[in-house]
Specification:
Blueprint (H helix, E strand, L loop, with lengths): L11 H5 L2 H13 L6 H10 L1 H11 L4 E2 L5 E2 L8 E2 L4 E2 L1 H5 L7 E7 L3 E6 H17 L7 E5 L4 H12 L3 E5 L5 H8 L6 E5 L1 E4 L2 E4 L1 H11 L3 E4 L15 E3 H5 L12 E2 L3 E6 L9 E5 H15 L7 E4 L6 H7 L7 E6 L9 H9 L1 E7 H9 L4 H4 L7 E5 L5 H11 L4 E4 L1 E3 L4 E5 L13 E2 L5 E4 L11 E5 L9 E2 L6 H8 L6 E9 L5 E6 L13 H8 L5 E11 L2 E10 L7 H14 L8 E4 L13 H8 L10
Parallel strand pairs: 5-18, 7-8, 7-9, 9-12, 12-13, 17-18, 17-19, 19-20, 20-21, 31-32
Antiparallel strand pairs: 1-4, 2-3, 4-14, 5-6, 10-11, 15-16, 16-27, 22-23, 23-24, 25-26, 26-28, 28-29, 30-31
Helix pairs in contact: 2-4, 3-4, 6-7, 8-9, 14-16
Length: 632
Protein backbone atom coordinates (compact mmCIF):
# COMPACT_ATOMS: atom_id res chain seq x y z
CA UNK A 1 0.00 0.00 0.00
CA UNK A 2 1.43 3.37 -1.04
CA UNK A 3 1.65 6.10 1.60
CA UNK A 4 -0.62 9.02 0.74
CA UNK A 5 1.69 11.67 2.22
CA UNK A 6 5.42 12.18 1.73
CA UNK A 7 7.74 12.09 4.74
CA UNK A 8 9.25 15.43 3.74
CA UNK A 9 8.46 18.13 1.20
CA UNK A 10 10.79 21.04 0.40
CA UNK A 11 9.22 24.43 1.05
CA UNK A 12 8.62 26.81 -1.85
CA UNK A 13 11.31 29.08 -0.41
CA UNK A 14 13.80 26.24 -0.18
CA UNK A 15 13.12 25.20 -3.78
CA UNK A 16 13.50 28.80 -4.98
CA UNK A 17 16.91 29.15 -3.31
CA UNK A 18 18.16 25.66 -4.12
CA UNK A 19 21.42 25.37 -6.07
CA UNK A 20 19.54 22.82 -8.20
CA UNK A 21 16.97 25.48 -9.15
CA UNK A 22 19.69 28.05 -9.85
CA UNK A 23 21.47 25.58 -12.13
CA UNK A 24 18.27 24.72 -14.01
CA UNK A 25 17.59 28.44 -14.57
CA UNK A 26 21.20 29.01 -15.63
CA UNK A 27 20.99 26.21 -18.22
CA UNK A 28 17.63 27.52 -19.48
CA UNK A 29 19.16 30.95 -20.09
CA UNK A 30 22.40 29.62 -21.54
CA UNK A 31 20.77 27.26 -24.03
CA UNK A 32 17.45 29.02 -24.62
CA UNK A 33 15.41 26.03 -23.43
CA UNK A 34 12.29 26.16 -21.24
CA UNK A 35 11.98 23.46 -18.58
CA UNK A 36 8.44 22.94 -17.31
CA UNK A 37 9.70 21.04 -14.26
CA UNK A 38 12.62 19.04 -12.92
CA UNK A 39 11.65 15.94 -14.91
CA UNK A 40 11.85 17.95 -18.14
CA UNK A 41 15.31 19.16 -17.11
CA UNK A 42 16.42 15.60 -16.41
CA UNK A 43 15.24 14.47 -19.85
CA UNK A 44 17.18 17.33 -21.44
CA UNK A 45 20.31 16.42 -19.42
CA UNK A 46 20.25 12.96 -21.00
CA UNK A 47 19.23 13.92 -24.52
CA UNK A 48 21.47 17.00 -24.84
CA UNK A 49 24.33 15.46 -22.89
CA UNK A 50 27.01 17.48 -24.67
CA UNK A 51 25.34 20.71 -23.51
CA UNK A 52 24.58 19.34 -20.05
CA UNK A 53 28.09 18.15 -19.17
CA UNK A 54 29.61 21.28 -20.68
CA UNK A 55 27.28 23.26 -18.41
CA UNK A 56 28.43 21.28 -15.34
CA UNK A 57 32.07 22.03 -16.24
CA UNK A 58 31.44 25.76 -16.66
CA UNK A 59 28.96 26.34 -13.82
CA UNK A 60 31.10 24.45 -11.28
CA UNK A 61 34.22 26.31 -12.34
CA UNK A 62 36.36 23.30 -13.20
CA UNK A 63 40.02 24.32 -13.36
CA UNK A 64 41.59 23.16 -16.62
CA UNK A 65 41.14 23.41 -20.38
CA UNK A 66 37.88 21.89 -21.59
CA UNK A 67 38.93 21.73 -25.23
CA UNK A 68 36.70 22.01 -28.27
CA UNK A 69 34.89 18.67 -28.26
CA UNK A 70 32.57 17.54 -25.46
CA UNK A 71 31.64 14.02 -26.60
CA UNK A 72 32.65 11.64 -29.38
CA UNK A 73 30.89 8.39 -30.32
CA UNK A 74 27.95 9.71 -28.28
CA UNK A 75 25.73 6.63 -28.66
CA UNK A 76 28.38 3.93 -28.23
CA UNK A 77 28.49 2.93 -24.57
CA UNK A 78 31.91 1.28 -24.84
CA UNK A 79 33.69 3.80 -27.05
CA UNK A 80 32.12 7.15 -26.16
CA UNK A 81 34.64 9.68 -24.82
CA UNK A 82 33.81 12.86 -22.93
CA UNK A 83 36.03 15.95 -23.30
CA UNK A 84 38.63 14.17 -25.45
CA UNK A 85 40.72 17.35 -25.84
CA UNK A 86 40.55 18.45 -22.19
CA UNK A 87 43.43 18.74 -19.73
CA UNK A 88 43.03 19.02 -15.97
CA UNK A 89 44.39 17.85 -12.64
CA UNK A 90 42.12 16.37 -10.00
CA UNK A 91 44.11 17.62 -6.97
CA UNK A 92 44.27 21.15 -8.39
CA UNK A 93 40.47 21.27 -8.37
CA UNK A 94 40.26 20.02 -4.78
CA UNK A 95 42.86 22.50 -3.50
CA UNK A 96 41.53 25.71 -5.03
CA UNK A 97 40.75 27.21 -1.59
CA UNK A 98 43.29 28.60 0.86
CA UNK A 99 43.13 30.34 4.21
CA UNK A 100 42.74 29.62 7.91
CA UNK A 101 39.23 28.14 7.74
CA UNK A 102 38.82 24.42 8.42
CA UNK A 103 39.42 22.12 5.47
CA UNK A 104 39.44 18.87 7.48
CA UNK A 105 38.21 17.98 10.96
CA UNK A 106 39.11 14.53 12.27
CA UNK A 107 38.14 12.23 15.10
CA UNK A 108 39.54 8.79 15.75
CA UNK A 109 36.89 7.46 18.14
CA UNK A 110 37.43 9.33 21.43
CA UNK A 111 41.21 8.90 21.23
CA UNK A 112 42.41 11.41 18.66
CA UNK A 113 41.25 14.78 17.34
CA UNK A 114 42.77 16.99 14.65
CA UNK A 115 41.83 20.11 12.73
CA UNK A 116 43.56 21.19 9.52
CA UNK A 117 43.05 24.56 7.84
CA UNK A 118 43.13 24.91 4.08
CA UNK A 119 46.62 26.37 4.39
CA UNK A 120 47.78 23.44 6.55
CA UNK A 121 46.38 20.96 4.03
CA UNK A 122 48.08 22.72 1.11
CA UNK A 123 51.39 22.83 3.03
CA UNK A 124 51.21 19.11 3.83
CA UNK A 125 50.41 18.27 0.20
CA UNK A 126 53.29 20.46 -0.99
CA UNK A 127 55.82 18.70 1.23
CA UNK A 128 54.53 15.26 0.23
CA UNK A 129 54.50 16.27 -3.44
CA UNK A 130 58.18 17.19 -3.25
CA UNK A 131 59.01 13.99 -1.36
CA UNK A 132 57.17 11.86 -3.92
CA UNK A 133 58.81 13.64 -6.85
CA UNK A 134 62.26 13.13 -5.32
CA UNK A 135 61.50 9.41 -5.08
CA UNK A 136 60.66 9.31 -8.79
CA UNK A 137 56.86 9.15 -8.52
CA UNK A 138 55.39 10.38 -11.79
CA UNK A 139 52.24 10.29 -13.91
CA UNK A 140 50.75 6.81 -14.27
CA UNK A 141 52.58 5.28 -11.29
CA UNK A 142 50.35 3.49 -8.81
CA UNK A 143 50.39 4.39 -5.10
CA UNK A 144 48.71 1.85 -2.81
CA UNK A 145 47.60 2.72 0.72
CA UNK A 146 46.25 0.72 3.67
CA UNK A 147 45.17 3.66 5.78
CA UNK A 148 42.56 4.91 8.26
CA UNK A 149 40.19 7.71 7.27
CA UNK A 150 42.45 10.48 8.60
CA UNK A 151 43.80 13.83 7.31
CA UNK A 152 47.18 12.41 6.25
CA UNK A 153 45.40 9.96 3.95
CA UNK A 154 43.68 12.82 2.12
CA UNK A 155 46.98 14.71 1.84
CA UNK A 156 48.80 11.64 0.52
CA UNK A 157 46.11 11.07 -2.12
CA UNK A 158 46.23 14.72 -3.22
CA UNK A 159 50.02 14.70 -3.42
CA UNK A 160 50.00 11.53 -5.52
CA UNK A 161 47.29 12.73 -7.90
CA UNK A 162 48.85 16.21 -8.18
CA UNK A 163 51.70 14.43 -9.98
CA UNK A 164 49.31 12.36 -12.12
CA UNK A 165 49.93 9.20 -10.10
CA UNK A 166 47.07 6.71 -9.59
CA UNK A 167 45.72 6.23 -6.05
CA UNK A 168 44.34 2.99 -4.63
CA UNK A 169 43.39 2.36 -1.01
CA UNK A 170 41.93 -0.10 1.47
CA UNK A 171 41.34 0.02 5.21
CA UNK A 172 43.85 -1.34 7.76
CA UNK A 173 41.46 -4.03 9.01
CA UNK A 174 42.01 -6.04 5.81
CA UNK A 175 43.96 -9.24 6.27
CA UNK A 176 47.35 -9.61 4.64
CA UNK A 177 46.03 -11.78 1.79
CA UNK A 178 43.12 -9.42 1.18
CA UNK A 179 45.55 -6.54 0.72
CA UNK A 180 47.74 -8.60 -1.61
CA UNK A 181 44.72 -9.79 -3.61
CA UNK A 182 44.07 -6.14 -4.43
CA UNK A 183 47.38 -4.32 -4.63
CA UNK A 184 49.29 -7.33 -5.95
CA UNK A 185 47.40 -6.92 -9.24
CA UNK A 186 48.28 -3.27 -9.89
CA UNK A 187 52.07 -3.12 -9.42
CA UNK A 188 52.36 -0.14 -7.06
CA UNK A 189 55.57 1.87 -6.86
CA UNK A 190 55.02 2.65 -3.16
CA UNK A 191 52.95 1.08 -0.37
CA UNK A 192 51.67 3.36 2.41
CA UNK A 193 50.29 2.07 5.72
CA UNK A 194 49.58 3.21 9.26
CA UNK A 195 51.40 1.70 12.23
CA UNK A 196 48.11 0.98 13.99
CA UNK A 197 44.53 2.16 14.46
CA UNK A 198 41.77 2.30 17.04
CA UNK A 199 38.66 0.18 16.89
CA UNK A 200 36.03 -0.13 19.61
CA UNK A 201 38.40 1.47 22.09
CA UNK A 202 41.20 -1.00 21.44
CA UNK A 203 44.54 -0.35 19.77
CA UNK A 204 45.15 -2.54 16.73
CA UNK A 205 48.77 -2.95 15.62
CA UNK A 206 49.43 -2.93 11.89
CA UNK A 207 53.16 -2.31 11.35
CA UNK A 208 54.18 -5.97 11.12
CA UNK A 209 51.38 -6.76 8.64
CA UNK A 210 52.30 -3.68 6.60
CA UNK A 211 55.94 -4.73 6.49
CA UNK A 212 55.00 -8.23 5.30
CA UNK A 213 52.75 -6.84 2.56
CA UNK A 214 55.41 -4.43 1.33
CA UNK A 215 57.97 -7.22 1.17
CA UNK A 216 55.65 -9.39 -0.91
CA UNK A 217 54.78 -6.46 -3.17
CA UNK A 218 58.51 -5.77 -3.54
CA UNK A 219 58.14 -2.03 -2.92
CA UNK A 220 59.16 0.45 -0.21
CA UNK A 221 56.84 0.91 2.79
CA UNK A 222 55.92 4.41 3.94
CA UNK A 223 54.77 4.03 7.57
CA UNK A 224 52.43 6.71 8.93
CA UNK A 225 52.22 7.09 12.73
CA UNK A 226 48.73 6.95 14.22
CA UNK A 227 47.93 4.44 16.95
CA UNK A 228 50.81 1.97 16.92
CA UNK A 229 53.07 1.27 19.87
CA UNK A 230 55.89 -0.39 17.94
CA UNK A 231 58.19 2.62 17.61
CA UNK A 232 61.28 0.45 17.21
CA UNK A 233 64.25 0.43 14.87
CA UNK A 234 62.13 -1.17 12.13
CA UNK A 235 61.42 2.28 10.67
CA UNK A 236 65.13 2.48 9.90
CA UNK A 237 65.26 -0.90 8.21
CA UNK A 238 65.92 -1.05 4.50
CA UNK A 239 62.76 -0.41 2.52
CA UNK A 240 60.87 1.21 5.42
CA UNK A 241 60.32 4.95 5.39
CA UNK A 242 58.79 6.96 8.20
CA UNK A 243 56.27 9.66 7.33
CA UNK A 244 57.83 12.41 9.46
CA UNK A 245 61.33 11.64 8.17
CA UNK A 246 60.15 11.69 4.57
CA UNK A 247 58.56 15.16 4.70
CA UNK A 248 60.99 16.74 7.18
CA UNK A 249 63.56 17.92 4.56
CA UNK A 250 60.97 19.87 2.56
CA UNK A 251 59.52 23.31 3.18
CA UNK A 252 56.06 24.09 1.84
CA UNK A 253 56.05 26.06 -1.40
CA UNK A 254 53.65 26.77 -4.25
CA UNK A 255 52.01 23.60 -5.49
CA UNK A 256 52.47 22.45 -9.06
CA UNK A 257 50.02 20.26 -10.90
CA UNK A 258 50.59 17.83 -13.76
CA UNK A 259 47.56 18.35 -15.97
CA UNK A 260 46.55 15.25 -17.87
CA UNK A 261 43.80 14.22 -20.32
CA UNK A 262 40.22 13.97 -19.00
CA UNK A 263 40.44 10.16 -19.16
CA UNK A 264 43.75 9.92 -17.28
CA UNK A 265 43.56 7.25 -14.53
CA UNK A 266 42.86 8.67 -11.06
CA UNK A 267 41.71 5.81 -8.83
CA UNK A 268 41.78 2.04 -8.89
CA UNK A 269 38.89 0.67 -6.85
CA UNK A 270 38.11 -2.98 -6.22
CA UNK A 271 34.95 -5.04 -6.45
CA UNK A 272 34.03 -6.81 -3.21
CA UNK A 273 35.66 -9.97 -4.51
CA UNK A 274 33.00 -12.32 -3.17
CA UNK A 275 33.04 -14.29 -6.45
CA UNK A 276 36.81 -14.46 -6.91
CA UNK A 277 39.84 -12.17 -6.93
CA UNK A 278 38.57 -8.56 -6.84
CA UNK A 279 38.22 -6.74 -10.16
CA UNK A 280 40.50 -3.69 -10.45
CA UNK A 281 38.20 -0.89 -11.64
CA UNK A 282 40.04 2.12 -13.08
CA UNK A 283 38.32 5.52 -12.85
CA UNK A 284 39.27 8.70 -14.71
CA UNK A 285 40.25 12.03 -13.18
CA UNK A 286 37.82 14.02 -15.31
CA UNK A 287 34.86 11.69 -15.08
CA UNK A 288 35.16 11.31 -11.31
CA UNK A 289 35.53 15.06 -10.75
CA UNK A 290 32.64 16.07 -12.99
CA UNK A 291 30.26 13.42 -11.64
CA UNK A 292 31.06 14.21 -8.00
CA UNK A 293 30.71 17.96 -8.56
CA UNK A 294 27.28 17.37 -10.10
CA UNK A 295 26.17 15.15 -7.22
CA UNK A 296 27.57 17.37 -4.48
CA UNK A 297 26.64 20.80 -5.83
CA UNK A 298 23.16 20.03 -7.16
CA UNK A 299 21.82 16.79 -5.69
CA UNK A 300 23.33 17.46 -2.22
CA UNK A 301 23.35 21.30 -2.44
CA UNK A 302 26.83 21.40 -0.92
CA UNK A 303 28.21 24.91 -0.52
CA UNK A 304 31.51 26.43 0.59
CA UNK A 305 32.24 26.12 4.29
CA UNK A 306 29.57 23.54 5.10
CA UNK A 307 30.44 20.55 7.31
CA UNK A 308 30.31 17.42 5.14
CA UNK A 309 30.43 14.03 6.90
CA UNK A 310 30.31 10.46 5.68
CA UNK A 311 30.90 7.46 7.90
CA UNK A 312 33.22 5.39 5.73
CA UNK A 313 36.56 3.64 5.55
CA UNK A 314 39.23 4.03 2.87
CA UNK A 315 38.23 0.64 1.48
CA UNK A 316 34.81 1.89 0.38
CA UNK A 317 34.13 4.18 -2.58
CA UNK A 318 32.24 6.56 -0.29
CA UNK A 319 35.65 7.75 0.92
CA UNK A 320 36.56 8.78 -2.63
CA UNK A 321 33.14 10.42 -2.93
CA UNK A 322 33.55 12.27 0.36
CA UNK A 323 36.97 13.77 -0.31
CA UNK A 324 35.82 15.40 -3.55
CA UNK A 325 33.72 17.63 -1.28
CA UNK A 326 36.87 19.76 -1.08
CA UNK A 327 36.23 20.78 -4.70
CA UNK A 328 33.02 22.47 -3.53
CA UNK A 329 34.88 24.25 -0.73
CA UNK A 330 33.23 22.14 1.96
CA UNK A 331 34.88 21.14 5.24
CA UNK A 332 35.42 17.39 5.41
CA UNK A 333 34.49 15.81 8.74
CA UNK A 334 36.39 12.54 8.97
CA UNK A 335 35.83 9.77 11.51
CA UNK A 336 37.76 6.55 11.91
CA UNK A 337 36.85 3.62 14.12
CA UNK A 338 33.67 2.11 15.49
CA UNK A 339 30.51 4.25 15.32
CA UNK A 340 29.63 2.85 18.76
CA UNK A 341 32.85 3.73 20.58
CA UNK A 342 32.63 4.70 23.34
CA UNK A 343 28.85 4.49 22.79
CA UNK A 344 26.11 4.92 20.17
CA UNK A 345 25.96 8.70 20.51
CA UNK A 346 29.53 9.38 19.36
CA UNK A 347 28.68 10.37 15.77
CA UNK A 348 25.77 12.55 16.90
CA UNK A 349 28.01 14.22 19.48
CA UNK A 350 30.37 14.98 16.60
CA UNK A 351 27.49 16.23 14.43
CA UNK A 352 26.25 18.56 17.18
CA UNK A 353 29.67 19.93 18.11
CA UNK A 354 30.77 20.64 14.53
CA UNK A 355 27.39 21.47 13.02
CA UNK A 356 27.18 18.87 10.26
CA UNK A 357 25.07 20.04 7.31
CA UNK A 358 25.33 16.64 5.62
CA UNK A 359 25.40 13.37 7.59
CA UNK A 360 26.16 10.36 5.39
CA UNK A 361 26.11 6.80 6.62
CA UNK A 362 25.00 3.26 5.83
CA UNK A 363 21.54 1.74 6.07
CA UNK A 364 23.04 -0.76 8.51
CA UNK A 365 24.10 2.07 10.85
CA UNK A 366 20.67 3.74 10.80
CA UNK A 367 19.07 0.40 11.64
CA UNK A 368 21.60 -0.22 14.43
CA UNK A 369 20.82 3.18 15.99
CA UNK A 370 17.09 2.39 15.77
CA UNK A 371 17.54 -1.07 17.29
CA UNK A 372 19.63 0.44 20.11
CA UNK A 373 16.65 2.60 21.11
CA UNK A 374 18.53 5.88 20.58
CA UNK A 375 16.68 9.08 19.66
CA UNK A 376 19.37 11.61 18.70
CA UNK A 377 16.76 14.19 17.75
CA UNK A 378 15.75 14.45 21.43
CA UNK A 379 19.26 14.33 22.90
CA UNK A 380 21.28 16.43 20.44
CA UNK A 381 21.11 19.83 18.78
CA UNK A 382 21.05 18.93 15.09
CA UNK A 383 19.77 22.31 13.91
CA UNK A 384 22.50 22.62 11.24
CA UNK A 385 21.64 19.24 9.72
CA UNK A 386 19.71 19.53 6.44
CA UNK A 387 20.58 16.30 4.59
CA UNK A 388 20.95 12.69 5.70
CA UNK A 389 22.23 10.27 3.07
CA UNK A 390 22.16 6.48 3.30
CA UNK A 391 23.75 3.80 1.15
CA UNK A 392 25.55 0.45 1.24
CA UNK A 393 22.31 -1.52 1.12
CA UNK A 394 18.65 -0.60 0.63
CA UNK A 395 17.25 1.47 3.50
CA UNK A 396 14.08 -0.17 4.83
CA UNK A 397 10.81 1.77 5.08
CA UNK A 398 11.21 1.55 8.87
CA UNK A 399 14.64 3.13 8.49
CA UNK A 400 13.07 6.00 6.57
CA UNK A 401 10.48 6.53 9.30
CA UNK A 402 13.11 6.37 12.04
CA UNK A 403 15.19 9.15 10.48
CA UNK A 404 12.17 11.47 10.71
CA UNK A 405 10.89 10.20 14.09
CA UNK A 406 14.22 9.66 15.83
CA UNK A 407 16.79 11.97 14.20
CA UNK A 408 15.12 15.05 12.69
CA UNK A 409 11.65 15.74 11.34
CA UNK A 410 12.69 18.53 8.96
CA UNK A 411 15.53 17.01 6.99
CA UNK A 412 15.96 15.69 3.48
CA UNK A 413 16.66 11.95 3.56
CA UNK A 414 18.44 10.79 0.43
CA UNK A 415 18.80 7.07 -0.01
CA UNK A 416 21.48 6.73 -2.69
CA UNK A 417 22.68 3.83 -4.81
CA UNK A 418 25.41 3.29 -7.37
CA UNK A 419 28.71 1.94 -6.22
CA UNK A 420 32.32 1.08 -6.80
CA UNK A 421 31.69 0.45 -10.50
CA UNK A 422 30.94 4.13 -11.15
CA UNK A 423 32.52 5.65 -7.97
CA UNK A 424 29.24 7.56 -7.56
CA UNK A 425 25.46 7.17 -7.81
CA UNK A 426 22.97 6.15 -10.47
CA UNK A 427 20.01 7.10 -8.26
CA UNK A 428 20.05 9.53 -5.36
CA UNK A 429 18.44 12.50 -3.64
CA UNK A 430 16.73 15.47 -5.22
CA UNK A 431 16.38 18.60 -3.06
CA UNK A 432 13.42 19.98 -5.05
CA UNK A 433 11.22 16.88 -4.75
CA UNK A 434 9.43 15.18 -1.83
CA UNK A 435 10.80 12.17 0.05
CA UNK A 436 8.52 9.14 0.04
CA UNK A 437 8.88 6.29 2.51
CA UNK A 438 11.08 3.48 1.20
CA UNK A 439 11.91 5.24 -2.10
CA UNK A 440 15.05 6.71 -3.62
CA UNK A 441 14.04 10.09 -5.02
CA UNK A 442 15.20 9.55 -8.59
CA UNK A 443 17.99 9.13 -11.15
CA UNK A 444 21.00 11.42 -11.27
CA UNK A 445 21.16 14.25 -13.78
CA UNK A 446 22.75 13.22 -17.07
CA UNK A 447 22.13 9.53 -16.43
CA UNK A 448 19.70 7.61 -18.65
CA UNK A 449 18.59 5.21 -15.93
CA UNK A 450 15.78 2.72 -16.53
CA UNK A 451 14.41 -0.64 -15.35
CA UNK A 452 14.25 -3.45 -17.93
CA UNK A 453 12.75 -6.92 -17.94
CA UNK A 454 14.63 -10.04 -19.04
CA UNK A 455 13.75 -9.36 -22.69
CA UNK A 456 15.33 -5.91 -22.55
CA UNK A 457 12.07 -3.95 -22.48
CA UNK A 458 11.37 -1.04 -20.09
CA UNK A 459 8.93 -1.91 -17.31
CA UNK A 460 6.83 0.15 -14.93
CA UNK A 461 5.16 -1.17 -11.82
CA UNK A 462 7.23 -4.36 -11.76
CA UNK A 463 10.75 -5.33 -10.85
CA UNK A 464 13.63 -5.67 -13.27
CA UNK A 465 17.25 -4.89 -13.97
CA UNK A 466 18.61 -1.40 -13.31
CA UNK A 467 20.23 -0.23 -16.55
CA UNK A 468 21.77 2.90 -18.06
CA UNK A 469 21.12 3.30 -21.76
CA UNK A 470 23.45 6.16 -22.73
CA UNK A 471 27.14 6.96 -22.07
CA UNK A 472 28.12 8.95 -18.96
CA UNK A 473 31.49 10.45 -17.91
CA UNK A 474 32.17 8.30 -14.83
CA UNK A 475 32.10 4.94 -16.60
CA UNK A 476 35.32 3.10 -15.71
CA UNK A 477 38.14 3.58 -18.21
CA UNK A 478 38.96 -0.13 -17.97
CA UNK A 479 39.80 -2.95 -15.62
CA UNK A 480 43.49 -3.25 -14.75
CA UNK A 481 45.09 -6.36 -16.29
CA UNK A 482 42.26 -6.72 -18.81
CA UNK A 483 44.11 -5.78 -22.02
CA UNK A 484 41.40 -6.73 -24.52
CA UNK A 485 38.54 -5.43 -22.33
CA UNK A 486 36.86 -8.83 -22.17
CA UNK A 487 36.23 -8.76 -18.39
CA UNK A 488 34.99 -5.19 -18.57
CA UNK A 489 32.48 -5.95 -21.33
CA UNK A 490 31.29 -9.09 -19.57
CA UNK A 491 30.77 -7.24 -16.29
CA UNK A 492 28.44 -4.53 -17.61
CA UNK A 493 27.49 -5.21 -21.23
CA UNK A 494 27.14 -8.99 -21.35
CA UNK A 495 23.41 -8.90 -20.57
CA UNK A 496 22.15 -6.25 -23.02
CA UNK A 497 23.87 -4.97 -26.15
CA UNK A 498 25.24 -1.41 -25.78
CA UNK A 499 23.43 -0.96 -22.45
CA UNK A 500 25.02 -0.86 -19.00
CA UNK A 501 23.43 -3.50 -16.75
CA UNK A 502 24.29 -2.62 -13.17
CA UNK A 503 23.28 -5.81 -11.37
CA UNK A 504 20.63 -4.23 -9.12
CA UNK A 505 17.07 -5.56 -8.91
CA UNK A 506 14.97 -2.38 -9.08
CA UNK A 507 11.48 -0.95 -9.55
CA UNK A 508 10.06 2.43 -10.57
CA UNK A 509 7.50 3.94 -8.18
CA UNK A 510 4.39 5.97 -8.98
CA UNK A 511 6.26 9.08 -7.80
CA UNK A 512 9.07 8.65 -10.33
CA UNK A 513 11.40 7.33 -7.65
CA UNK A 514 13.05 3.93 -7.40
CA UNK A 515 13.22 1.04 -4.99
CA UNK A 516 16.31 -1.18 -4.99
CA UNK A 517 15.32 -4.73 -4.03
CA UNK A 518 18.87 -6.02 -3.66
CA UNK A 519 21.51 -7.36 -6.01
CA UNK A 520 20.01 -9.15 -8.98
CA UNK A 521 22.55 -11.97 -8.71
CA UNK A 522 21.21 -12.62 -5.18
CA UNK A 523 17.51 -12.60 -6.09
CA UNK A 524 15.44 -15.60 -5.07
CA UNK A 525 13.42 -17.65 -7.56
CA UNK A 526 10.89 -19.82 -5.70
CA UNK A 527 8.39 -21.16 -8.20
CA UNK A 528 10.18 -19.25 -10.95
CA UNK A 529 9.19 -15.82 -9.54
CA UNK A 530 12.03 -13.37 -8.83
CA UNK A 531 12.05 -11.97 -5.30
CA UNK A 532 14.44 -9.33 -4.03
CA UNK A 533 16.14 -10.13 -0.73
CA UNK A 534 15.56 -6.57 0.53
CA UNK A 535 11.81 -7.22 0.44
CA UNK A 536 12.27 -9.92 3.09
CA UNK A 537 14.76 -7.91 5.18
CA UNK A 538 12.35 -4.97 5.30
CA UNK A 539 9.79 -7.17 7.06
CA UNK A 540 12.07 -9.24 9.28
CA UNK A 541 14.02 -6.31 10.67
CA UNK A 542 10.85 -4.67 12.04
CA UNK A 543 10.72 -7.46 14.62
CA UNK A 544 12.40 -6.34 17.85
CA UNK A 545 14.11 -9.64 18.61
CA UNK A 546 15.88 -9.69 15.20
CA UNK A 547 19.04 -7.59 14.96
CA UNK A 548 19.77 -8.48 11.32
CA UNK A 549 19.09 -11.18 8.77
CA UNK A 550 20.41 -12.84 5.62
CA UNK A 551 18.40 -14.92 3.18
CA UNK A 552 19.34 -17.11 0.24
CA UNK A 553 17.69 -19.37 -2.26
CA UNK A 554 18.59 -23.06 -1.82
CA UNK A 555 18.11 -25.59 -4.62
CA UNK A 556 15.58 -28.08 -3.23
CA UNK A 557 13.41 -30.78 -4.81
CA UNK A 558 13.72 -29.36 -8.31
CA UNK A 559 12.81 -25.83 -7.16
CA UNK A 560 14.27 -23.11 -4.96
CA UNK A 561 13.34 -22.69 -1.33
CA UNK A 562 13.96 -19.55 0.72
CA UNK A 563 16.23 -20.00 3.75
CA UNK A 564 16.43 -17.17 6.29
CA UNK A 565 19.25 -16.77 8.81
CA UNK A 566 18.62 -14.41 11.74
CA UNK A 567 20.87 -12.87 14.38
CA UNK A 568 18.85 -12.29 17.53
CA UNK A 569 19.16 -9.87 20.42
CA UNK A 570 20.80 -11.15 23.59
CA UNK A 571 18.31 -13.18 25.56
CA UNK A 572 16.00 -13.88 22.59
CA UNK A 573 15.50 -17.42 21.33
CA UNK A 574 14.13 -18.69 18.04
CA UNK A 575 11.20 -20.65 19.45
CA UNK A 576 8.06 -21.69 17.57
CA UNK A 577 6.26 -18.49 18.56
CA UNK A 578 8.97 -16.25 17.12
CA UNK A 579 9.24 -18.36 13.95
CA UNK A 580 5.48 -18.05 13.50
CA UNK A 581 5.61 -14.27 14.05
CA UNK A 582 8.44 -13.85 11.52
CA UNK A 583 6.63 -15.89 8.90
CA UNK A 584 3.38 -14.04 9.47
CA UNK A 585 5.10 -10.65 9.20
CA UNK A 586 6.67 -11.67 5.88
CA UNK A 587 3.41 -13.17 4.59
CA UNK A 588 1.35 -10.08 5.36
CA UNK A 589 4.02 -7.47 4.64
CA UNK A 590 5.40 -9.00 1.44
CA UNK A 591 3.57 -12.07 0.10
CA UNK A 592 3.10 -15.79 0.84
CA UNK A 593 5.76 -16.54 -1.78
CA UNK A 594 8.34 -14.61 0.30
CA UNK A 595 7.83 -16.77 3.39
CA UNK A 596 10.99 -18.80 4.09
CA UNK A 597 10.87 -22.57 4.20
CA UNK A 598 13.54 -22.57 6.91
CA UNK A 599 14.45 -19.99 9.57
CA UNK A 600 17.73 -20.57 11.37
CA UNK A 601 19.31 -18.60 14.22
CA UNK A 602 23.02 -17.81 13.80
CA UNK A 603 25.61 -16.13 16.01
CA UNK A 604 26.56 -13.54 13.39
CA UNK A 605 26.02 -12.48 9.78
CA UNK A 606 29.07 -12.43 7.48
CA UNK A 607 29.80 -9.13 5.74
CA UNK A 608 32.38 -7.66 3.43
CA UNK A 609 34.85 -5.08 4.76
CA UNK A 610 32.51 -2.32 3.57
CA UNK A 611 29.61 -3.80 5.56
CA UNK A 612 27.60 -5.53 2.83
CA UNK A 613 26.12 -8.92 3.67
CA UNK A 614 27.60 -11.71 1.56
CA UNK A 615 24.56 -13.60 0.33
CA UNK A 616 26.46 -15.25 -2.53
CA UNK A 617 29.17 -16.63 -0.25
CA UNK A 618 26.57 -18.07 2.13
CA UNK A 619 24.70 -19.57 -0.82
CA UNK A 620 27.92 -21.25 -1.93
CA UNK A 621 28.51 -22.69 1.55
CA UNK A 622 24.97 -24.06 1.78
CA UNK A 623 25.38 -25.74 -1.61
CA UNK A 624 28.75 -27.21 -0.66
CA UNK A 625 30.70 -24.96 -3.02
CA UNK A 626 33.99 -23.30 -2.10
CA UNK A 627 33.86 -19.63 -1.14
CA UNK A 628 36.08 -18.02 -3.77
CA UNK A 629 37.46 -15.13 -1.76
CA UNK A 630 37.32 -15.39 2.00
CA UNK A 631 39.54 -12.31 2.30
CA UNK A 632 36.64 -10.07 1.18
Amino acid sequence: MTDTNPLWTPSAERIAHSPMTHFIDWCANRYGVHFADYDAFHRWSVEAREDFWSAVWTYCGVIGEAGERVLIDRDDMLNARFFPDAELNFAENLLSRSGSEDAIIFRGEDKVEARWSWDRLREEVSRLQQAFAERGIEAGDRIAAMMPNMPQTVALMLAATSLGAVWSSCSPDFGEQGVLDRFGQIGPKLFIACDGYWYNGKRQEVADKAKAVAEKLGVPLLLVPYAGTTQTDQENEAGILHYDDVIQPFQAKSLTYARQPFSHPLYILFSSGTTGVPKCIVHSAGGTLLQHLKEHRFHCELIEGERFFYFTTCGWMMWNWLVTGLASGATLCLYDGSPFAPDGTVLFDYAEQEGFAVFGTSAKYIDAVRKAGLEPGKTHDLSALRLVTSTGSPLSPEGFSFVYDGIKSDVQLASISGGTDIVSCFVLGNPVKPVWKGEIQGPGLGLSVDVWDDEGKPVRGEKGELVCTAPFPCQPIMFWNDPDGEKYRAAYFGRFDNVWCHGDFAEWTVHGGLIIHGRSDATLNPGGVRIGTAEIYNQVETIDEVLEALCIGQDWDGDVRVVLFVRLKDGASLDDALISRIKNRIRTGASPRHVPAKIIAVADIPRTKSGKIVELAVRDVVHGRAVKNKEA
